[in-house]
Each structure stands twice: as structure tokens, then as C-alpha cells.
Amino acid sequence: MSDFLKRPRLPAGIDGSRRDLWEEFLRQPFGKHSPDLQALLEYMRGGPITGKYFLKLTGPHSEWTLARFSETFPLTTETLPEHVFTTIEDAEHFVFRRRWEEMFGADPGAES
Amino acid sequence: MSVKAAVMGYADRQSVRPGERIEFKVSALGPETYRADIVRLIAPEVGLGEDCPDFCEIELGTDVCGDYPTEWQPIHPGSAVRVPMPEGLPLGGGVTLSANIFPTLASAGRQGILGTYSPTDDSGLSLILEGGALALAVGSGGSTTIVTSSIVPVEHRWTAVAVTYEPDPGTVEFHARGMETHRLESALSSRERMDAAAPGALGGSHFHVGAVRAVDDRGVEHTALSFNGRIERPRVYARLLDGEDISRLSKVAGPAPVAGAHADWDLSIGIDTDSVTDVSGNGHHGETVNLPTRAVGGSNWAGETDNWQLRTEQYGAIHFHDDDVDDARWRTSFTLVVPEDWKSGCYAARLRADDAEFYVPFVVRPTPGTEADAVLLIATATYGAYANLRLRVVFPWNELIHGRLTVLDDTDLLMLRFPEIGSSTYDSHTDGSTVVYASMRRPVTNFRPKGRIYKFCQDLLLVSWLEEDGYDYDVITDEDVHREGLSALEPYRVVITSSHPEYFSSQMFDATEDHVRQGGRMMYLGGNGWYWVIGYHPTRSGIVEVRRPDAPRLWAADVSQGHLSFSGERAGTWSWAGRPPETFLGVCFITQGFDECSYYRRTPASQDERAAFIFEGVDDELIGDFGLLMGGAAGYEIDRADFLMGTPRHALVVASSEEHSNLYDLMVTSLVDTLPPSNPDDPDRIRADMVFYETAGGGAVFSVGSIAWSGSLSAAGYDNNVAAVSRNVLNRFLDPEPFQMPAE
User: Fold this and answer.
1) Which of B582, B474, B436 is nearest to B18 (CA)?
2) Which residues of B touch A61 (CB under 8 A)?
3) Closest to B128 (Cα-Cα) out of B157, B99, B95
């Protein structure tokens, strides 16, 4: 399947200085978010399937291992066994930080 | 390097009674043996939280349990028309093959259009596409010659093509003429002769349209080199036609434009069957293999109607795909005869090979005459439509629309490792066209008691609640109701639905509604129910058809496909078909969100004495503000009452959900609902409504309009207000005392 849907745009004013968005996500990864955090999440989550992070269920809804799709088609997957989580929230926070760092060059959670 | 273990399987049916047989077909890789056990499923694997029931399966001692030698059984996808032609093609005086073609994936390499060629034994003769160009494959017994022209039919355009072949001296002449001359672009018109290019074709015992014949190393005959696209009016002449005759062959309706065809298949005949009819008078009738898509517009489709029954002559095309698979066609590995003393319920064959595991669930119905008063209707039609939901693995926006990282396990990823197990009706074929048929006659990765808590896995939460509370209940499937109608439900006072009974045939809709009309009770403990019209294959079980002419572009069929091929019925949503689900359930799906679930707040109508039994002993104003499915009983997919759309006038909306996350605003079907209300005092239109009403026959309907409801039953050891409401309703519904319609 091709990535025929365009990735959403990142609105102006959302950049690496907006630690408030990380703090909001840290508090509440799911549910109603502020408009800016929602826009940032849509950008982060709306990327192509190639290279995309996902979670490999490695325990009965109790353990998740970070994994990634291949960079090319046909898709394969690779698990990253050094990153194992026992809550979905921890996994969401970890991937958020990685993506933020890839986008803005610094880990928003480095001091927290 | 050792092969990573894998085991997959499927059964020949999903529903069986004591004393009946069910056949399991298994394929495995890796260790020398795999293990098979039969288990009864009591509770799904949903996690370790304190509100989660423990996974519970009961191993049953049967003579089929044991270790079996590992055997790999391949799947050969790709659809075709297959015609027995034991005498081969009549080559003596030369032969002409012709058809109208609409290729959709020229890049797919070598693709068979029509003929008898087989690469297995280098026999026969077929017109093919070779790298997008017209070509002739000629088998001479020991080798194959591919004679390739320079003519490249245009993708997604109708082209009349033909080839003539003289075996001695091996002269080949290709013809191609674009048929869409109304377009503002140049039309293909080409003729190419190649002398002595391929002398001496031999043999070929089966004629194929849309593929060629092959035989695998186990001796199993199958399709190969599948064509992607539509083919219309394939014809064979046992002589060399001249250019003038060939130019007349593209005509598809009415009498044959050139007399004396050896075979002339009018594919508009038998659209609702697997049969293909030769109208030449020579009896070369055939059948479709792997369910290519019928009831699609042909070269002469004129846009007057999207109903193939009204202009059948405009539906003489079949759309073939190289990834069609309607049946893995594996040999049976073991057969279970269900013991007479097994209780009705959910069961499975559990297959294990090293660390690989695969479940093949099935339902045991009760012996007739021993039915309980309540029945759980397991949503096999919906499981079928979603079978091998590839979109959940490869769709780039999956994480976005779910508002969470995608979670996959080894069983989900079998779809990447073994793509030949096929797709669901939410997916696209390799050529980008929509999948309209889906089958349970192949390994299905998302029909199991583990993995994503959705569909069957989630429905086992209803089983665990019924078991926990000690209810006597039976289990039957959608397909049982489809095939048997009302009689499948008549033994029961109460029908309890699955969590997501989204796909309904008219037979299922009629039976469930008639059941309530004559006094039965319906507990709709799910969301997005009775939403899409489906058809079941008329003769083969486990195969459903879905087309979505009213869907957003994502899953749209092309505009010629407004009716199902299996039944001729209008396709799309039940609302589109003029029978909104609100008229029966009181509610209809409006939107979805998979990041967080919410709760219901009781309405003033919940104080109505008609609803008193629902909330007996429940003093809470909020219902289901907890649960193992993302924290609430209202969510995943939610339904709302709508009196304009047909919610019965006397229905009570006893509770409504609120405060859903942003993601519930994203669903295209509810876009208008997400706009600010014209009156600020109006309730939020993004909500699940809990509805109750009585019928004149003494029956009643209770609907929660939320998939997530069953995820809250087990909280606090099943001592919570979702379980209490469910229990109250079930207890009253089991009471034979008729319900009374309220006075107007």
C-alpha cells in the first residue's frame, strides 16, 4: 500500500522550545490534548510506514518490546530488545522523546 | 541456519454440533513435529491487571490431540477461469485467441491472459503480458518460447487484443486496438507479425483465463502467472482470422460478430456463481478459481446503473488479481468428531511448533432440543470481513487514527512473512483495487483468543462474564443464522450479540428482527452493529462479500459496483440500503477512537419506571468509568440514537457517554457531527447512547452502542455497575413475562 495520504503539517510555533508539550504528554499520553500537542502528535504519528516504530507484544499484554519496520519494501520488522517496557505509557513516552530528538535535536526528557 | 518455526491452520467450518465432524488443515515449518490440542475457551488473554480475568482454556482429551509430523502446505494465490480442455487447443489449421483486457498492474511481470500454456511441463499456448507487452508463450514439451511483441496495452484502459498462431512454421501475429476512443488521448492501434518465431506448440490440457496452469511438487494443480485486471469475452477460433474479423471481436453483446468460435465465454452469465459459460455451443464451460471479482463493469459499462442485474450485458468482465485466495486448499491434517457430551461454547484447535502458536477457533452448538434460554451470537460474518486485516500492520496512518503506537505480535506478523494468506475487505489488492471477498478457508491471524483485544478475543470477555455469573447459555454463529434464518434463533428467549457485530446479511437482519418481533429479546452489548450489508457465498461456507459504494474513498469500490455479486443485493451500509440499524437496535455507529474510552452518564429517562429493572441496585450516575479497554465502557466504536433515522419512537435513551477524546472527531462519517451545534445547549453529538425499548410481541431490545462495554464487565471481580446493568437486563430478558409496549 502506498503512502497516499499526506503527512500532516507541523504548525508554526511548535518547535524544540515547547517543553510544555512534552510535559503535557508526560502527564497524559492518551485522551484529550491541547491543540498544539494534538498537532504535534499527528505529525509524529503520521509519518510513512517505512522505518516506523511499533511495539512488539512480547508478554501477555504485560510486556512490549520496541520494534521498527524496515526502511524499504517489502516490509520486514526488527525488534530492539534493549528497549522493553512493562507499561504502554512508558513506551509512548520513550518513542515521543526519540521522535522529538529526531525532529528538534535534543531529548526533551533528558533532565526529567 | 535453522528455519524459524511457524504453524498455521484453519478449519472447514466455524460451527459444529455434537456428533458432527470438523476438519483441520495445518501447515508448519521448523521442528519435526507440531502439537495439536483441542481446548475450550473460557476467558481471553487480556493482561495481568487486577481487573483482567485470567486467561482460561480447558484442554480436552480427544483422540486428535497429539504430535503430528510437520508438513509445509503452500498456498497458491491468484484467480483465474479454468476450463477443462483435454484435447488441447485445435492447432491444425492455426488458432486465434482474443479478449478485451483492462490491465491494472503491467509491472507484475509475466501474466497469463488466455490459453493452455503451462510452465510446469512447458506445454500449451497462451497469450500473455510479458513486462507489459503482448506476448505468446509457446511450450514445445521440453522448453518454452516467449514471443514478445512491442505492443504495450495501456494500464487502466480497455484494449481489444488478439493473437493468431500457425504452428507450422510458427508464425505469430498480434493485434491490439484501444477501445476508449471517446477519451482525449491517442488510442492504441497496432498489428505485429513475427514469422517462424515459435514452431510447434504441444499439449496443454486445461484452458485458463487470467492465469496459466501449474502443478506444484506435491502434484497439486494451481494457478500461476496471474493477470491483474479485467478480462472480457475471451474467445478461441480454431482458424486464423484475418484483420477485418479480428477488428469485430471486441463486440461483447448480442450475437457473435464472427461465426464459428471454438469457444466463446460470455462472463456476464452466472455472475452470482463460480460457473463460466461457453456460448459457442461446443460446451467448453468452466469455473472460476480463487474468486476473481465478478459484477464489475465491462468495456461497455455506460454509467446508467450500478446494478449488474439491470444491465447484465454491461457486466461481462471479471477482475483477476494475483493475490486472490478463497481457499488455501490444504489437505486435512486431522478430523475431530465432536463428542455428544460437549457443552455448547467456544472452542479451538491449539497448534504449537517450538515457540510458534496458532489457534483455530470454532463454536460448538447444542444438540437440537437441548438449548439454553440465552444464546451468544458469535460474529463470524464480521470476523470474515476483517480476516487478515493487513491494514492494521502496514497502513501508515494506523498509529495516527488509533492515537497509540501500533501493537503487533508474532501472529500478526505472519501476514508479512507469508503474504499469500491474503487480505481482508479493508485492504487493497496488489493492483490497488479493493478486496471484496474474504474467506475463513485459510489461516486467519486475527481470529484467536490472544493478541489484540478486539473481535473474537474481546468476545470471549462476554463468555467469561457468562461463565463467571453461572448463566446457562449456548453459542451459535452469524453464518448459522444466515443459513437457517429465524429457526436458528427460535429456541432462545434472549440473543446476546458479540462486541462488534458490524457485518450483517439480510437473512441475519430479518431473523434477528423477526425474533424480537415475536417476543424475543435482543441484548446488543457492542458497537458498530448491523452496519454493512454482506453476502455469503451461495454454496461455500466461510466466504463473505462486502462492497462499499457509499464509503469514503479509502475503501470505495469503483462506481460500477453498487450490488453484491453473491446475492444481487444493494451493497454498502444498511442505512444506504434503506434499512438504518436505528430502526432495530435504536442506535447506529457514528464514530470511533482507539486511544481512550469514556463513560456513560444516566439520563432522566433512566428514572422511567419502564427502565427501573435496568438500574436495580445501581445508584451511580456514571456507568462504566473504568475498564480494561482503555479505561471506560464507552468507546472504540460508538453508536448514537437518532429518531430521525428510525430509532423507535417509544425507545428510552437511558444513558449517554460524554467527554470522548479528540480522535473521535476524526472519523470522516461523523465530520458534520463534530461541528459546533447550532444550539449550544444541544448535547454533544459524539456520544454512545444506551437504549431500551419494548416490542408489541412482548419482546425487547437493549443496546449499549459501544464496543468497549464488555471490557468493563470484569472490573472489581465482576462487581461493578456495567456487570450489574448487564446482569439486570439479562435476568429480566430471561423472564418469560412479556414486555408491554407503553401507551402512546
Assistant:
1) B474
2) 45-48, 52, 453
3) B99
Rounded CA separation B481/B382 (Å): 13
pLDDT in tens, B444-454: 999 999 999 99
* A34 contact residues in B (CB cutoff 8 A): none
Q: What are the pLDDT digits (tens) for B563-602? A: 999 999 999 999 989 999 999 999 999 999 889 999 999 9
B716 neighbors B667 (Cβ within 8 angstroms): no
> pLDDT class for B553, splitting at 50, 70, 90?
low
Examine the pLDDT at B343 and tell me if it is beyond 80.
yes
- Which secondary structure element, helix H or strand E, spans residue B722, and what is its range? helix B721-734
Say which residue the cell 481446548 belongs to. B39
List all residues of chain B from 402 to 421 with a beta carbon under 8 Å from chain A. 403-409, 413, 416, 419
pLDDT above 70 covers what percent of chain B? 97
The H or E element containing residue B732 is: helix B721-734
- The verdict on whether omega for the bond into residue B234 sits within 30 degrees of 0, i.e. cis, is no
CA distance B701 to B692: 6
Are the C-beta atoms of B266 and B277 separated by less than 8 Å? yes
- Which amino acid makes up residue B382? T
What average pLDDT does chain B have? Answer: 95
Angle between helices A35-45 and A88-104 (to 10 degrees): 80
Which cell is B32 given?
A: 519435526
Alpha-carbon gap, residue B320 to B234, rounded angstroms: 13
Do the beta carbons of residue B589 and residue B624 sit within 8 Å? no
Residue B553 touches partner A, C-beta closer than 8 Å:
no
Smallest CA–CA distance, residue A111 to chain B, in Å, is 24
Q: CA gyration radius for chain A?
A: 15
Torsion of CA A94, A98, A101, A106, to 10 degrees: 40
Q: Would you list the domain boundaries of chain A?
A: 19-104
Q: Do B404 and A88 touch (CB under 8 A)?
A: yes
Q: Closest Cα of chain A to B451: distance in Å? A: 8
Q: Inform me whether the C-beta atom of residue A99 falls under 8 Å from chain B C-beta atoms.
A: no
Q: How far is CA B270 from the centre of its chain?
A: 21
Instruction: Choose the mutation target among B50, B56, B355, B397 for the interface with A, i.e. most A CBs under 10 Å.
Output: B397
Contact A41 B47 (CB under 8 A): no
**DSSP E strands: which ranges in B132-241?**
133-139, 144-148, 159-166, 171-178, 189-194, 206-209, 212-215, 221-224, 229-237
User: Between A5 and B254, whose confidence is greater?
Assistant: B254
Q: How close, in Å, is residue A67 to chain B by CA atoms? A: 9
CA A96, A100, A103, A107 torsion-angle sign: negative
Beta strand spans in B388-434 (E): 407-408
B678 CB-near residues (< 8 Å, 6+ apart)? none
Instruction: Map out the domains of chain B with their CATH numbers.
Output: 6-74+332-365 (2.60.40.1930), 80-320 (2.60.120.200), 449-734 (3.40.50.880)
Task: Find the CB nearest B661 among A31, A52, A53.
Answer: A31
Task: Determine contact, residues B627/B708, Cβ cutoff 8 Å.
Answer: yes
Q: Are strands B652-658 and B689-694 parallel, antiparallel or unpaired?
A: antiparallel
Residue B275 CA, chain-centre distance (Å), reads 21
Cα separation of B50 and B25, whole Å? Answer: 37
**Secondary structure (3-state) at B188:** coil
With DSSP H G I counted as helix, E B as strand and the rest as coil, what are the percentages for chain B, rounded to 5? Answer: 15, 30, 50
DSSP letter (8 states) at residue B672: G
Residue numbers in A near B52 (CB within 8 A)? 61
Say if A33 is an interface residue toward chain B (CB within 8 Å). yes
Distance CA B117, CA B97 (A): 13
In B490-609 the beta strands, taken as DSSP E runs, fall at 494-497, 503-504, 521-524, 532-533, 535-536, 543-545, 587-602
